[in-house]
Amino acid sequence: MLEAEKPTAKLLRICLVLSGVTGALGVIGLALSAHSDAPALLATGAQMMLFHAPVFLGVGLVAQIRRAPFLPVVALLLASGLTLFCGDLFSRSFVSEKLFSMAAPIGGSLIILSWFALALNAFLLFPKKPAV
C-alpha cells in the first residue's frame, strides 16, 4: 500500500483539533492579558495552553505512524487537565470565581499524569500493521 493510501488515525484527527483549539485559546488569552488589566492568572493559563498545543500534534502524529496503546490516554488526560486547570484560571480572571473547589490542582495533576503516560509509551511503541 502506498504511503498516501494509508488510513488516517482517528486519534490524529482528534489531536489536530485539540492542538488547533488549544493553540488558538492560548493566543487569545495572551492577547487579552497583554491588552487589558487582566490578572496574571490569565497569562499563566494562556501560556499553559500554548505550551501544550504542540503536544497534541505530536501525539496525533505518533498515532499515525506507530501503535502506542497509551496515546489515547495521554490525549484524554491532557485535554481534561488543561480544561480544568486553565478553565479555573480563566474563570478566576473573567468572573472572579473558581471553576469549582480543587479544579486547578486536579487539572494540574492530570497534566502531570499525561506526561508520565506519554513517557510510558516510549516502552510500548510497535510498528503499525499494514492495512489490507
Task: Tag the structure with descriptive keywords.
132 residues, mainly alpha, two-stranded antiparallel ribbon, 72% helix, elongated
In a nutshell, what does this entry contain?
By secondary structure, the chain is mainly alpha-helical. It has helices spanning 10-34, 40-65, 71-95, 103-121; strands at residues 66-67, 126-127. Strands 1-2 form a two-stranded antiparallel sheet.
* Amino- and carboxy-terminal Cα gap: 8 Å
Structural class: mainly alpha
Number of domains: 1
Q: Major beta sheet, specifics?
A: 2 strands, antiparallel
Q: Provide a count of the helices.
A: 4
Q: Could you tell me the mean pLDDT? A: 89
Sequence of secondary-structure elements:
HHEHHE
Hey, roughly how much beta strand do the residues contain?
under 5%
How many β-strands, per DSSP? Answer: 2
Compute the gyration radius: what is it? 17 Å
Give the strand line-up of the largest sheet.
1-2
Tell me, briefly, the overall form: elongated
| Relative helix content | over 70%
Unreliable spans: none
Overall description:
There is one protein chain. The chain is mostly helical. It has one domain (11-124). The protein is 72% helix and 3% strand. Strands 1-2 form a two-stranded antiparallel sheet. α1 packs parallel to α3 (71-95) and α3 (71-95) runs antiparallel to α4. The N and C termini lie close together (8 Å).
